[in-house]
């Protein structure tokens, strides 16, 4: 299977189209809130549950040292806060504030390109797509 194969070429073209549209939508949603795409990713990850900095960095594929600046800027805007971990006070958890939760909810509502087409798929199709994407992204 090579890029010269018509099916492979079509799949690559479709991936590029999806990626381009998703990137444009993501950047527009971030800009609406005066955030960078990385700040949006961090905010949405934290909105699910408070997490240690290391886990957020893993989710974003970022180094913890780079994440510190992202989190500092989100904290300065009142969107996230650092909390002590109840079972180990040496660990700081990152969590969204009420303002951060509202911003994350608004951001999700603006990111329709990704969710609308997925809604057209039934649950089995979404599972199949997820499994194929996981297979393609395994390292």
Summarize it:
With 139 residues, the chain is of the alpha+beta class.
Distance between the termini: 20 Å
**Main sheet record:** 3 strands, antiparallel
What is the fold-level CATH name, i.e. the topology? Arc Repressor Mutant, subunit A
What Rg, in angstroms, do the CA atoms define?
A: 18 Å
Number of discrete helical segments: 7
Verbal overview:
With 139 residues, this protein is of the alpha+beta class. The chain has one domain: Winged helix-like DNA-binding domain superfamily/Winged helix DNA-binding domain (Arc Repressor Mutant, subunit A), CATH 1.10.10.10. It has seven helices and three strands. Helix 2 (37-48) crosses helix 3 (53-60) and helix 2 packs across helix 4 (64-76). The protein is globular. 17% of the residues are buried.
Topology at a glance:
Layout (H helix, E strand, L loop, with lengths): L5 H27 L4 H12 L2 E2 H8 L3 H13 L3 E6 L2 E9 L1 H13 L1 H8 L3 H15 L2
Helix pairs in contact: 2-3, 2-4, 2-5, 3-4
Defining traits:
139 residues; alpha+beta; Arc Repressor Mutant, subunit A; 3-stranded antiparallel beta sheet; 7 helices; 3 strands; 69% helix
């Amino acid at each position: 299977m090579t890029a010269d194969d018509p099916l492979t070429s079509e799949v690559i073209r479709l991936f590029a189209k999806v990626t381009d549209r998703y990137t444009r939508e993501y950047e527009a949603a971030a800009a609406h809130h005066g955030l960078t795409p990385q700040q949006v990713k961090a905010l949405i990850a934290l909105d699910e549950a408070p997490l240690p900095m290391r886990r957020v960095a893993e989710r974003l594929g970022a180094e913890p040292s780079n994440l510190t600046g992202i989190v500092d800027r989100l904290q300065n805007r009142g969107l996230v806060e650092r909390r002590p971990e109840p079972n180990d006070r040496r660990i700081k958890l990152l969590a969204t504030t009420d303002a951060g939760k509202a911003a994350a909810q608004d951001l999700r509502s603006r990111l329709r390109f990704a969710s609308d087409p997925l809604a057209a798929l039934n649950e089995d199709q979404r599972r199949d797509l997820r499994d194929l994407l996981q297979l393609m992204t395994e390292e």
